[in-house]
């Protein structure tokens, strides 16, 4: 099964992608992982991407597309994959279609995780991270520490990352609406989009997605 996962920042794409990929026994291909792997391994695409990033410039679509295509050609993706963070704009979506067509493949579904915008802002802006260990994550409303501003695990100071500030979150949402949301209409024209309400517990959202995929299978 070949799936694209889309949704705004804070919709839980990374979490759902991991669960869905495990349930479907297909690799989870995330843009972030692709960049990290290519840069750490010093591949030609990784070197090119790093040169743009070091200069403070956006990495061109051609580099991202190249990394995604290389990953989809690996043996573990022969029977399917779940794409998370790619495609992120119409140009990348068209490139993916072209790649699949040239290889005699098709997408099975585009899962659109739907979360109200104000919930997204609340989810992200409420995050608090431990300065000692970034894996210790709390939330000002949903997962409060026992003592305000103090990590329950190690006693470190909890802080709000600049990326998680409300004004930054709203800018990220604007970018999502402008760049990524148009691919939903693009895939609706191909009758591929399955909208999944993404409020609720992680396992509840995963079940909704799995049920929807099974109905469409």
UniProtKB/TrEMBL annotation:
- Locations listed in the record: Cytoplasm
Q: Which GO terms describe its molecular function?
A: AMP kinase activity; ATP binding
Q: Which InterPro entries match?
A: Adenyl_kin_sub, Adenylat/UMP-CMP_kin, Adenylat_kinase_CS, Adenylate_kinase_lid-dom, ADK_active_lid_dom_sf, P-loop_NTPase
Q: Which Pfam families match?
A: ADK (PF00406), ADK_lid (PF05191)
Kinase: present as a keyword of the record?
yes
In this chain, ATP is annotated as bound at 10-15, 127, 137-138, 200
- Main EC class the enzyme belongs to: transferase
Instruction: Describe its function.
Output: Catalyzes the reversible transfer of the terminal phosphate group between ATP and AMP. Plays an important role in cellular energy homeostasis and in adenine nucleotide metabolism.
The UniProt entry, under PANTHER family, shows: NUCLEOTIDE KINASE
Tell me what this protein is called.
Adenylate kinase
